[in-house]
């Protein structure tokens, strides 16, 4: 089984989400062959050298899954883009570039975090460009820990304080087919927008799908892929699956 998740925003202040994540892994560990985490596994990440006890715990959980034989892949999100090789090595995970094309049972699938598709959010796109610049990344990684904590808190507070129109924070519709055509795929999976759904669209003469993973807040979300279908499911933090939708390939 291939499992894809994103936008857990794990933090000590939300033990319910952490317990749901652990339950998901432990309940399906024997069936998970590949786990993809498409960004924002953590609410904040100030670099591998600043890992907290809580983050070490999550690292150990992923290592246990990896040691069981599962392949674990992690992609940067807008909250944890400073996750580096040290964490991935300790977790037994591979860091994925954003975007990346993978093969699911012979079907090429484009995986993304999704923030790069939100091109109408001009202010965010400018900030993203600055923060992902190699020079900026180098400076951030070499700031004192206390300075990184303050900067992370400032960015989080600024993000929470801003209210933007729905069409601004969602993907730009015209961007989706352009990106999919560029990579030669008819299936895209991403997170970031916190608007879980399976969207059917037309690219040229082909039917295509954009699958949006959900944010873990009131309940969790996971996309399960097997040789027959993609199934997007939501589940309560204390009860089994609530609902699911799927399409067949």
Automatic annotation (TrEMBL):
UniProt keywords, alphabetically: Cell inner membrane, Cell membrane, Hydrolase, Lipid A biosynthesis, Lipid biosynthesis, Lipid metabolism, Manganese, Membrane, Metal-binding
Domain Calcineurin-like phosphoesterase: 2-196
Listed GO MF terms: hydrolase activity
Enzyme class, first EC level, given as a word: hydrolase
Domain of life, source organism: Bacteria
Chain residues that bind Mn(2+) 1: 7, 9, 40, 194
Membrane topology qualifier: Peripheral membrane protein
Cofactor details (free text): Binds 2 Mn(2+) ions per subunit in a binuclear metal center.
Binding-site list for substrate: 78-79, 121, 159, 162, 164, 192
Cell compartments where the protein resides: Cell inner membrane
Tagged with keyword Lipid biosynthesis: yes
Family the entry assigns: Belongs to the LpxH family.
Record-linked PANTHER family: UDP-2,3-DIACYLGLUCOSAMINE HYDROLASE, UDP-2,3-DIACYLGLUCOSAMINE HYDROLASE-RELATED
Free-text function comment from the UniProt entry: Hydrolyzes the pyrophosphate bond of UDP-2,3-diacylglucosamine to yield 2,3-diacylglucosamine 1-phosphate (lipid X) and UMP by catalyzing the attack of water at the alpha-P atom. Involved in the biosynthesis of lipid A, a phosphorylated glycolipid that anchors the lipopolysaccharide to the outer membrane of the cell.
HAMAP family: LpxH
Protein's UniProt name: UDP-2,3-diacylglucosamine hydrolase
Organism per entry: Candidatus Pseudomonas adelgestsugas
């Amino acid at each position: 089984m291939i499992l894809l998740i994103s936008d857990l925003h794990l933090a000590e202040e939300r033990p319910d989400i952490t317990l749901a994540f652990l339950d998901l892994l432990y309940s399906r560990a024997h069936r998970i062959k590949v786990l993809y985490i498409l960004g924002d596994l953590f609410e904040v990440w100030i670099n591998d050298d600043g890992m907290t006890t809580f983050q070490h715990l999550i690292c150990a959980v992923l290592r246990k899954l990896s040691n069981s034989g599962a392949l674990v892949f992690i992609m940067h999100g807008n909250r944890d883009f400073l996750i580096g090789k040290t964490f991935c090595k300790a977790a037994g995970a591979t860091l994925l570039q954003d975007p990346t094309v993978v093969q699911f049972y012979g079907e090429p699938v484009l995986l993304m975090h999704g923030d790069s598709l939100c091109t109408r959010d001009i202010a965010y796109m400018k900030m993203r460009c600055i923060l992902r610049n190699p020079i900026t990344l180098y400076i951030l990684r070499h700031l004192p820990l206390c300075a990184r904590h303050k900067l992370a808190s400032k960015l989080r507070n600024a993000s929470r304080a801003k209210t933007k129109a729905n069409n601004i924070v969602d993907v730009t519709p015209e961007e989706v087919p352009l990106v999919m055509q560029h990579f030669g795929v008819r299936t895209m999976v991403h997170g970031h927008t916190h608007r879980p759904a399976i969207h059917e669209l037309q690219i040229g003469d082909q039917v295509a799908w954009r699958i949006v993973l959900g944010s873990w807040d009131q309940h969790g979300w996971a996309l399960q892929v097997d040789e027959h279908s993609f199934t997007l499911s939501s589940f309560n933090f204390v009860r089994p699956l609530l609902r699911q939708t799927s399409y067949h390939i």
